[in-house]
């Protein structure tokens, strides 16, 4: 695939948001990308060598600019191939593990003027590259020592209103979940009284009990989970509209809630027809 443009979209609430095997000259601009329970946005992902010929097919030449990566339970961008440019993005590690990483070297990537932030992150690292031996980057200064992230900063983007962090359900304990008891992955980041949202459904629920591996929520879910999805921790603040507005020059400039109403240009008018009767609209509908 060549000459692909992804401009001013929202990719949110999925296992993984985008795979890009054998893609070259891909531009991703002004998008909000996140809510993935695994890795979120694959840049030039390798096509596996299924015939054991000793080679893998990779793409290259991605331009990733002015995007907001947020609310991912794992990594924002796994990177493959080369000739990529990242600039003016927000890498908001809000409960996740890293901003970007992969089997590349610093020479395969030009990355500048990005904003990094970590809230309840699972690790200290911002990135890890393993193209010529594993290199872990825990600060902007670590990047700059190898020629990456000139002009980049580590700073709170101060979004207008978003969850504190995301927590994935434990994939090994899915069968143990009920409508009210949910088993989470990793360390316990919940407290009794926290407000939580289940899988971007817009419903305000409260943690009534918690232990080292689970929480009990009220009101309960309509049915027990059957797959690994995300819990959004809002903390003491009730679940509300998400607003990724920020005063920085980094990241996407999209009205998230308007987009969820199919008003893509935020002019107060729906831009696509209503879904037919009987078909559920696949969007977050905030329910106060």
**Biggest sheet, in brief?**
6 strands, parallel
Gap from first CA to last CA: 43 Å
Give the count of helical stretches. 2
Residue share in helices? under 10%
Number of beta strands: 21
Structure in words:
A hairpin with a 5-residue loop joins strand 13 and strand 14. Helix content is 3%, strand content 32%. It starts with a strand and ends in a 28-residue tail after the last helix. The strands form four sheets. The protein has a six-stranded parallel beta sheet, with no helix packed on it. Strands 16-21-18-19-20-17 form a six-stranded antiparallel beta sheet, with no helix packed on it. It is mainly β and 288 residues long. The protein is built from two helices and 21 strands. The chain is globular and about 50 Å long.
SSE map:
Layout: E1 2-7, E2 10-14, E3 24-29, E4 32-36, E5 63-65, E6 68-70, E7 75-78, E8 84-87, E9 90-94, E10 98-102, E11 109-112, E12 115-119, E13 127-129, E14 135-137, H1 140-144, E15 153-154, E16 165-168, E17 181-183, E18 195-198, E19 205-210, E20 214-218, E21 230-235, H2 256-260
Parallel strand pairs: 1-3, 2-4, 3-5, 4-6, 5-8, 6-9, 7-10, 8-11, 9-12, 10-13, 12-15
Antiparallel strand pairs: 13-14, 16-21, 17-20, 18-19, 18-21, 19-20
